[in-house]
Amino acid sequence: MAERSFFSWITNNWLPKIICLLIAIILFLVYRTTSLSTRKINIAIDAVHTEKYIPVNAYTKTMVVEIRGESEKIMNITDREVKAFIDFSECKGEGPANMDIHVRFSPAVQLIDPIEVITSLETVYVVVEKRAFADVNIDLQLFGAVAGGYQLASHSVTPEVVHVSGPQSIVDNLNGHLHINYDITGQRYSFSNNVDIADFLDPDSNLTVVSTGVLEISAKIEPIVIRESFKNLHVTFVGLAEKFNLTQLTPVNLEIESIKETMESFSAGMITIVADCSAINGSGDFDLPLKIDLPDGVVLFSPERPVVKVHVE
Fold it and tell me: For the chain, which terminus, N or C, has the lower number of CB atoms within 10 Å?
């Protein structure tokens, strides 16, 4: 009798009861959904390359992952625990392709329950080419003006040839030369710097140097040397006996040399010229050696052995 009463209770007015059950289930799901917190994370889309195929275009390399779950369980999830990648081993040939994005979670994230994950992208559009290899010459171009008063004397790069890998069309367009532009603006000293070659490559070209990761760039920078002529310079004659009179027969002309910075402020008054007459003991014409005193950093270029011709009587 009790069993029949329970069965009658279930079957009696069964349609409203089923409707109520469905409403209860829906309300439960709505409550559970609205009670979950949301966390959005920007993550990089890595690429698993192969020896056969490689992308030639600049493709999307980031996406947003939306994670829903209980706040205390998802608040500490970072991009280190969520990884996305496309796998070029899945390519079937050259040309355009929509590559599937694979998402992987750390073991800690996989244990979270409940959890919902929505990604902003499911595929990435890429254009695929065969991978090519080649030996190319490094063409080093130094640009920019060195410090005032200085000049670039020479430069070099080591190694001069590197082995590169990349999309067939990119490697072909190199024509055997990889151009490296290096800034020397304001330099006044010679240098030899090791630089990361990847810093000079377009990341969207997918071109890599497989033989080395470092270039040694060297440059010899020297002061600009200025040479200037000074004519009819004053000579101080010393040591001449009082009984003699001296007449200078030839002018003293000198060529002086120094760096540009020094020569810009140099003048004839800074040259001291002395002729020693102490060896003269009679009348006549004499060629007297000259002693030239110049400031530090300034040198006499010519004549090599300056003299002055004088007449003594």
Answer: N
Hey, what are 96's tokens? 């355009």
| Block residue for tokens 């559970």 | 32
Task: Report whether 69 contacts 36 (CB < 8 A).
Answer: yes
- The verdict on pTM exceeding 0.90 is no
Where does residue 28 rank: exposed (0-12), middle (13-18), buried (19+ CB within 10 A)?
A: exposed
Residue recorded with tokens 């003699």: 244
Q: Please return the burial class of 19, using the count of CB atoms within 10 Å of its CB with bins 0-12, 13-18 and 19+.
A: exposed
> What's the rounded Cα separation, in Å, for the pair 116 and 133?
44
Question: Nearest 5°: phi and psi at 286?
Answer: -135, 145
Give residue 62's identity as a one-letter amino acid code: T
Strand residues in 70-199 grouped as ranges (E):
82-87, 95-100, 102-105, 115-119, 123-143, 150-158, 161-167, 177-183, 191-196
- Residues 14-62 pLDDT 10s: 676 677 677 767 656 655 555 578 889 999 999 998 889 999 988 899 9
| Residues 6 or more apart whose Cβ sits within 8 Å of residue 144 | 183, 184, 185, 186
* Structural domains of the chain sorted by starting position, each given as residue range(s) with its CATH number in brackets: 2-129 (2.170.120.30), 131-223 (2.170.120.40), 226-312 (2.170.120.30)
Half-sphere exposure of 154 (CA within 13 A, CB side): 2
3-class DSSP state for residue 278? Answer: coil
What are the pLDDT digits (tens) for 204-231? 888 999 988 899 999 999 999 999 999 9
DSSP string, 137-170: EEEEEEES--STTEEEEEEEEE-SEEEEEEEHHH
Q: Which residues of 51-69 are buried (b: 16+ CB within 10 A; e: fewer)?
A: eebbbbeebeeebebebeb
Burial class (CB in 10 A: 0-12, 13-18, 19+), 15: exposed
